[in-house]
Specification:
The protein is mainly alpha-helical and about 180 residues long. It has helices at about 5-15, 20-40, 45-60, 70-95, 105-110, 115-130, 130-145, 150-155, 160-180.
Length: about 180
């Protein structure tokens, strides 16, 4: 089954309702969904819960997968939207801490780039305080290296809207980053 495409696995599951087809999709993508959820939610337990919830949502809505995009793009779209909704829900409950991690260590990421510790601290501080929508968009583009087309599809926006939002997010990020660099 490892040679089956994602689309074929989906179609076989829908046609035959055999769990082995969905299990293979789960095996292929569970870790990716977990790490993506972790990078957004900043909490291992919440990311584990999100992964299970997302796959339940996928299972219940598998018939809605049209094949217009790749299965992985569709899955990541659901993952991002689920996590964004979860952040909004948690924000209302005041559970999120500004000291949370983003699923990667900025100091480790920038160490090989010759960026000084002060710059890494300013980057971390900036990520902590920027708007969640800007943070998600910037992480999608620069941490995940997603193409504009995929970001647009994930967020259900046009590519030109994504370009504009990215441009504005970068400008706001730069302004706050420069503020932290002065401290």
């Amino acid at each position: 089954m490892k040679s089956f495409s994602d689309s074929l696995l989906v179609q076989n599951y829908l046609d035959f309702r055999e769990p082995k087809y969905f299990d293979e999709l789960y095996m292929r993508y569970a870790n990716k969904v977990f790490y993506k959820s972790y990078s957004i939610l900043n909490d291992r337990i919440k990311a584990e819960d999100a992964t299970q919830d997302i796959f339940m949502k996928i299972l219940l809505n598998l018939s809605k997968f049209t094949g217009k995009s790749s299965f992985s793009t569709w899955l990541y779209s659901i993952t991002y939207n689920y996590c964004i909704d979860e952040i909004r829900r948690l924000k209302k409950s005041r559970i999120i801490s500004v000291d949370d991690d983003y699923g990667f260590d900025i100091e480790d990421e920038v160490d090989g780039l010759g960026i000084h510790e002060e710059d890494a601290i300013a980057l971390r501080s900036t990520l902590d305080v920027i708007d969640e929508t800007d943070r998600i968009l910037l992480l999608m583009k620069y941490q995940d290296n997603m193409m504009l087309r995929d970001i647009a599809e994930t967020l259900k926006l046009s590519e030109s809207a994504v370009k504009m939002r990215l441009q504005r997010a970068k400008a706001r990020f730069k302004k706050k980053y420069l503020m932290f660099r002065k401290l």
